[in-house]
Specification:
The protein is α+β, with helices and mostly antiparallel strands. It has helices at 43-46, 78-87, 103-112, 135-142, 160-164, 185-189, 215-222, 239-247, and strands at 3-5, 29-33, 36-40, 53-58, 88-97, 116-124, 149-158, 170-178, 201-208. The protein folds into 3 domains: 3-128 and 197-232, Rossmann fold (3-Layer(aba) Sandwich), CATH 3.40.50; 135-189, no CATH class; 248-283, no CATH class. Strands 4-5-9-6 form a 4-stranded mixed β-sheet, sandwiched between helices. A hairpin with a 2-residue loop joins strand 2 and strand 3. It is elongated.
């Protein structure tokens, strides 16, 4: 059974002096689910009540102004990450997802918040929806050439005014699908050109709260500072190896070691063109 309370458990004396102005009535609800404790509220308001955290995994705003939302107008500031810093143990790690377009802004804020940037991880996926502008089609439109209508598209729209007042609304409309074949000679020259790549990855910053002394002493004292590398290895032999090999599709997967202009003798000896990479066959 879930147990719900509305008060913090952090000892007042263990909280940093910067949080002395905390409200007498905490601005969150605490929910206990087994061994897990959920703090339901604004994270910036909750963090001053929490200390001794081993790690932080976050997926904050990307700063893309998603659907015009105010909460996504920028990435979390250094001030916010300093709140996270105070809640963590020395040597604790932070991983935070970001957009490919604004990762640099997010990583700088994390660093300015007191963390050491340790590495960058990647979440790679194939389900992204491209938001690219068709250059060829735009040229035809600019020159007044109309393309043939070959069907219709359904489009979901949102009422911004209603959403601003807390009401989630949407409507579905139909619009014409035009031919992909260029009409004018000018547009034909730019056939296949767009303005954006299909989203296919999200960079993740891997950072760590600094600590005094050696890694060994910090691990012994706080239980933080190290990464369980062995648990992340992909096996190359044994029962799991066959499963991973079966999941690998050499026809659709590009080896991540491929770089333009490099000669990879240890893979295939293929000389890559300066225009881009090629697929490396797996054996």
């Amino acid at each position: 059974m879930n147990h719900v309370t509305s008060f913090p458990t952090a000892d007042e004396t263990t909280v940093a002096n910067a949080f002395d102005d905390r409200a007498a009535s905490p601005p969150f609800v605490k929910v206990q689910i087994g061994a897990a404790t959920l703090y339901l509220g604004d994270s910036a308001a909750v963090l001053p009540y929490i200390t001794g955290v081993d790690a932080c995994v976050a997926d904050g705003p990307y700063g893309l102004s998603f659907m015009g939302k105010a909460w996504d107008y920028d990435v979390p500031t250094a001030g916010f990450w300093s709140l996270v810093w105070n809640a963590l143990k020395p040597g604790a790690h932070l991983v935070n997802f970001a957009s490919a377009r604004t990762y640099h802004r997010m990583a700088v804020q994390v660093e300015d918040g007191g963390f050491d940037i340790r590495d960058q991880l990647l979440w790679v996926y194939g389900s992204g929806f491209p938001k690219s502008h068709d250059v060829s089609k735009a040229i035809d439109k600019t020159l007044g050439a109309k393309r043939q209508v070959v069907g219709t598209h359904g489009r979901i729209g949102y009422n911004a005014l209603a959403e601003a007042n807390g009401v989630q609304t949407c409507n579905v409309t139909q619009w014409d699908r035009t031919s992909a074949v260029a009409v004018t000679a000018e547009a034909q020259q730019w056939q296949g050109y767009g303005t954006a790549l299909k989203p296919a990855h999200e960079p993740i910053v891997l950072a760590r709260k600094p600590f005094k002394g050696s890694v060994a002493n910090n691990v012994l004292k706080h239980g933080t500072g190290g990464l369980n590398i062995a648990a992340t290895r992909v096996p190359t032999s044994g029962g799991d190896a066959a499963k991973h090999k079966a999941a690998w599709n050499s026809a659709t997967t590009t080896d991540i070691r491929v770089c333009a202009g490099a000669k990879l003798h240890h893979l295939s000896g293929v000389v890559l063109s300066s225009a881009g990479g090629v697929k490396i066959p797996r054996h």
